[in-house]
Amino acid sequence: MAGRHKQPVDVIVARGKSHLTRAEKERRKAEEATIPPHLRAVQAPEYLSEWPDLVDAFYRYAEMLRDIMPEQFGQPDADLLARYLVSERLFESLTSKLVKLDDVDGIKSLQVAQDKAFKQAHTSASALGLTVTSRCRLVVPSGGEDDDESEF
User: Fold this and answer.
1) What is the C-alpha to C-alpha distance for residues 150 and 147, in angstroms, rounded to an integer?
2) Which residues contact 121 (CB under 8 A, 6 or more apart)?
3) CB burial class (10 A; 0-12, 13-18, 19+) of residue 7?
4) What mean pLDDT comes out for the span 101-119?
5) Given CA atoms 44, 48, 52, 53 in this order, what sign does their dihedral have?
6) pLDDT (mean) for 97-106
7) Rounded CA separation 42/75 (Å)
8) How far is the C-alpha of 104 from the C-alpha of 130, rounded, in Å?
9) Do 124 and 80 touch, CB atoms closer than 8 A?
10) pLDDT tens for residues 113-152?
11) How far apart, in whole angstroms, are the C-alpha atoms of residue 65 and residue 129?
12) pLDDT tens for residues 58-101?
């Protein structure tokens, strides 16, 4: 079917709905996108070192993403995660300034900047799987099996 996303082989097997032959499973597994093991260790970009608290947040988020997607998250995603954190910080900064402002013209210009920062943060968060809707699109196989329970 056009537009239909294939689920990872591990998910199909975990759900118990595998109709694939061993050869087909191996072929599809080989085609799945993964980050090579030598690129899975993530380092914060240098420009983030200007904000030590963002570096800490970077490693916290990186650990969460590695737990969710161990073979799909790595160094190629580091810059996107850093951009998310910077735009989130900018959004928070603009929001706190906006709350304190009384000047109508100043409010309007800050709202435009705040909206742009929000859109940047939201776009980065969606690409990383940090929003509710983007997490719903992620397919993560569960480790436990419920063989005792029936479907009905």
Assistant:
1) 8
2) 84, 87, 88, 90, 91
3) middle
4) 92
5) negative
6) 88
7) 5
8) 34
9) yes
10) 999 999 999 999 998 888 877 766 655 555 554 544 544 4
11) 8
12) 999 999 988 888 888 889 899 999 999 999 999 999 999 999 98
Q: In this structure, are residues 60 and 104 in contact, taking their beta carbons and an 8 Å threshold?
A: no
Question: How many C-beta atoms lie closer than 10 Å to residue 137's C-beta?
Answer: 10
Q: Is residue 11 classed exposed, middle or buried when 0-12, 13-18 and 19+ CB atoms within 10 A define those classes?
A: middle
Residue 150 structure tokens: 């029936």
26-38: per-residue pLDDT in tens?
Answer: 777 766 667 778 8
Contact of 21 with 53, CB cutoff 8 Å: no
Report in angstroms the alpha-carbon separations of 121 from 34, 75, 131.
25, 19, 10
Tokens linked to 59: 């490693």
pLDDT at residue 138 in the model: 59
Strands, E assignment, 10-148: none
48, 74, 110, 116 from 89: Cα distances, Å = 12, 23, 15, 13
Give the pTM: 0.71
